[in-house]
Amino acid sequence: MRLVKYLLLLFVFSYVFINSAFATVKVGVTHWVDYTNPDETGVYIELLKEVYADEQLEFDFSTYKRITNLFEQKQYDIVVGVAKEDIPLAYYPNWYLDYDYPINAYFVDSAHKFNKLSDLNNKVLSWLDGYNFDKFIEYPHDYYPASTIENAMALLLNKRIDAFVDFDYNIPKEYKSKLNYVEVVPARPIYLAFSNNEKGKALARKFDQTMPKLKSSGRLQALYKLDYENTRFAEFDANKTKIVLSSNDESLLRLNSVTEGKSLDAQLYKLILAEMRDYRIEFVKAPDTNVEVQFGISHCFANKINTPERASRYLISKPFSLYLAPRLYSPNNLAQFKHIKNLDELVSQSGLRLGLSKFRIFSEDIMSLLEEVDKTKIKPAPTNIFSRLQQLAKLQEFDASIEYPSDVATYWHDITDADIHSFDLKLKTSFTVGHLMCERSEENIKFMQNFNNTLSKLIQSDEYKALIYHFAADLPAEQFNKIYQQALLDEE
Predict the structure, then answer these.
(1) Which pTM was predicted?
(2) Predicted confidence (pLDDT) per residue in 363-413, tens digit
(3) CA 107/CA 148 separation, integer angstroms
(4) How far apart are CA 225 and CA 121, in angstroms?
(5) CA-CA distance, 116 to 107, in Å (whole number)?
(6) How far apart are CA 230 and CA 467, in angstroms?
(7) Rounded CA gap, 359 and 426, in Å?
(8) Which of 72, 259, 300, 375 is the most exposed place for a label (fewest CB within 10 A)?
(9) CA quadruple 67, 71, 73, 77: dihedral positive or negative?
(10) Signal sequence: where (predicted)?
(11) Alpha-carbon distance 114 to 72, whole Å?
């Protein structure tokens, strides 16, 4: 009987704690005109005041970089208007705060004709100090920090920089007619980030409980006014299961961009997710770390190699992507060397100069092959794949490089119209497969089942197979078909 009373009191106490007002709620916020004004007005602040009418909100205005840093030091309960990748360890609600505008690279038409992101390769780029747009631009570039928008516009118009990266709404109207742009990151949801503790989770639940009421009453539309259409709240279905997929593949992060995703992963996910419309899939930039950071219980990693350690911790999908083993590539015709059995012999007889980055690490069998190669035939090469292929195309420093076929298929024809030829390194393993990997949760188990069922149908299709073959570069069709069967179909 005492135990029953104790449990009842504990339940009542927990309910009161979760649903009662907190003494104070500390909110980190950056000044965005009309959204978060220092006089505590603006769309987002008015929304917070309505959702948390019973709480005492304390707003602390500072730069975006500072508030995200202070949040990680546990100084705030809430941070307003963040992208998930900027605070990966926060607790996030189901409802978002707004849809941010695309991030664009602005340039002067008379100076450049940028049509795609790869055109930014080796250019001088600028953005406001404090923003970390660098993580979205995979091509080598120089960075010139700007202190203000006015300073940035002066640098751009005077051709001191090649492009300025920022959100569209930050570019003054008087300059827009003088500029063109290429999209860097498409429009994406931004959130209230909550502290990952009981207080933060209670505040997040209240946000999720209140937002549907504000939407149905018309209050959200009244608050956001002309920007309501941009929020996408009208078509937002909170009943769909949200799954967050993290990746370092910039093409995946731009899957819904006006700039079509070029990578194999982006093309495969486009096919798969078109068949899974009961889910809200959100791609988020993975942290630049080997630590597998999660974004809540509905989080998955878009593409991982299966290992026994991972299989013991995560849900692992059937293999959905296929990457052929690295080959030796050269713009020079290698057909005459087909009879050669190994890399060392090829390099010594062909006179090829092998480009190799000192920071690049291959599998053990490739490293063993490289040990046998005459060191005088190995030349320094860039670490970045685009820069390395760009240098290979010039045939100046080196004329051969070891590359993954999928990378060659993705980037080579952005660089040159010239043909490229390959040599089979005759490795022990001819391919690698990628898997979706998810945190263990009830929702993720259902998602994984649906993902696998969809995949089982798609990998049988000619469209799926042809897509992967496109990224196999110049591999003979007969050889590819055997690998495809072994890697994907035999799993069925």
Answers:
(1) 0.80
(2) 888 989 999 999 999 999 988 888 899 999 999 999 999 999 988 988 898
(3) 17
(4) 40
(5) 12
(6) 34
(7) 23
(8) 375
(9) positive
(10) 1-23
(11) 37
